[in-house]
Amino acid sequence: MKTYQETLHWIHELLAFGMKPGLLRMEHMLEELGNPEETLKCVHIAGTNGKGSTLTFMQCALEEAGYNVGTFTSPYIEQFNERISVNGSPISDDDLIKVANEVRPITEKVAATDLGTPTEFEVVTVLSIVYFAKYVELDIVLFETGLGGRLDSTNVITPLLTGITNIGYDHTAILGSTIEQIAYEKSGIIKPAVPLVTGADQREALNVINERAKRLGAPVYIANREYLTLDHRVLVSGEKFSVKTPDRIYQDLVTGMQGNHQVKNASMAIMMLELLSEKYGYKIDSQHINNGFSKASWPGRFEKMNDYPLIYIDGAHNKEGIESLKETMVSHFPKHRKRIIFSALSDKPVDEMLSVLYDSIDHILFTSFDFPRASTAKELYDKCRFDRKDLEETYQLAITKEMGQMGENDLLIITGSLYFISAARNFLHEKKS
Asked: Which residue among 44, 72, 86, 185 is least enclosed by CB atoms within 10 Å?
């Protein structure tokens, strides 16, 4: 492969092979490549929501402390390359081509066996591991799971720490329909004697997590038990809070990432950073954390896109995400009239998700976007029991229409699938340029 487009085409072609749970293909490919994952110092983060934000808080603090930090995240918001980044800078097109050419013969070799063709996510995970191990010099790599944990492609690493942000009802067809079943899948990233930090708060989830951790001899640090959030105050453009850990208090932290859920993610990140410092010798002090958190941002998570009219986008793609969105929306904009543009993939329980918002919004406009599993606006509209609703199949027209109807006291939030958020975000950038 000689060009970036050729390389992307090869990667995306693998999407046709869908999802095939299991780690055998990953293990086989990495063995053929000389097990590069064994050379990496890693942190592994799973959870229903908040993985990317927790990872971002950690990344920013580690960078402030002078470390070179690799990050593997999904999905992307602006460009594919950002899934594999170093110190926030996506892998270059040239490096992606080189790594892909190194990995492709191995994937084709595996495809010819009884294991079958590797999936897109498996190949992207291998690309990230090879890049981090062979092409750049890193002090640490932060890996975010794609889905679940136990059978996720990233679960081939042996991390210094693991983290589970929260447990909620998402991807239930794959992960299970109960909190216990989903917690079982997420807790599959826990490794023998490797410390775990979790922000999960349901008793059913914690029982499952604690049971696995105890069986593997992994120390567990639980939110509101080993670490606490104190003095949380809502700011005009962010949050101010303090965090108490077993060893110290981090006072008057400020982040521009809005919402109580982001404070929870930041608190979990602090506990993980402290463990990296205490157990593995990373030199991270309070000032590194203060400075890093103040700079932290995560595209598509309650991100302001426009001032007049006031527009935010938020990738609230499940019920827990919608609940966090509502809490943030109400605490930061209590007096605004709130309008929603929403689009999602066809497997989402639309009315169950959106019903959380019905008592605090004024209007919903359903739309669609170009993606294989995207619902039509009409399908979403029909599933919703909210009275003040409308539909427009083309998302560009939907956004333009809403912007034209907004008054000075209106807030527009564009939300739903992260794939939709990515498309809407690009459109809004184009409108402004």
From this structure: 86
